Amino acid sequence: GTRIIYDRAFLMQCRNSPLTK
Amino acid sequence: PPKQPGVGEHPLQFNYTLWYSRRSPGKQNMSQSYDQNLKKVGTFASVEQFWNHYCHIARPCELSGHSDFHMFKDGIRPMWEDDANKLGGKWIIRLKKGLASRCWENIILAMLGEQFMVGEEICGAVISIRYQEDILSLWNRTSNDQQTTSRIRDTLRRVLNLPPNTIMEYKTHNDSLKDNSS
């Protein structure tokens, strides 16, 4: 099946997202 | 029920649980006390849930004494006896003091982002803070699958960005049990 793949840069970007408190 | 990603969050391929353990000085290192020392920090189903936990806990380099963080797929206990681990093994990387926080972050981000490309093989990762050096390990399900273990080693080399002379050792959990070393 399809895998959910994230690279490091994307994961770091999510760290600063408004959804991350 | 298993944890779910929140609205607008980025789901992970697998849910993960973060554990912490610390060995009290003077206590015997028996399997039972190891189990009793394991404290669940939290479980996360999305990238955002992961950061919400991670940003509020100490970095490995800030820990003192004989402490470990364990991040395993939800449902797998960080013990060799777990069904997912009993036929498995781990890559072991010994780190000079000062590298643990960066290497731990790199290994768990690679795991959460599914960078290893070995199907269901990855079980979890451990950072062990010790007095002289720190030890990073990555556990997989099937120790006798050499294609998988080689692939994991190559990805580890890439994501950890370690000096080329860093020694990486693979050990089956069965061997660890026999020599009572971990």
Shape of chain A: elongated
**Rg result of chain A:** 10 Å
Terminal-residue CA separation of chain A:
32 Å
Strand content of chain B: 25-35%
User: N-to-C SSE series of chain B?
Assistant: EHEHEEHEEHEH
Termini separation of chain B comes to 32 Å
Sheet/helix structural class of chain A: mainly alpha
Low-confidence stretches of chain A: none
Reported for the largest beta sheet of chain B, the result is:
7 strands, antiparallel
Largest sheet descriptor of chain A: none
The total count of helices of chain B amounts to 5
Please tell me the overall pLDDT of chain A: 91
Helix content of chain B: 25-40%
- Secondary structure tally: strands of chain B: 7
Tell me how many strands of chain A there are.
Answer: 0
What share of residues of chain A is helical? 25-40%
Q: Approximately how much beta-strand content do the residues of chain A carry?
A: under 5%
Overall geometry of chain B comes to: globular
Q: Which class do the helix and strand fractions of chain B yield?
A: alpha+beta
Biggest interface found: A-B, 15 and 20 residues
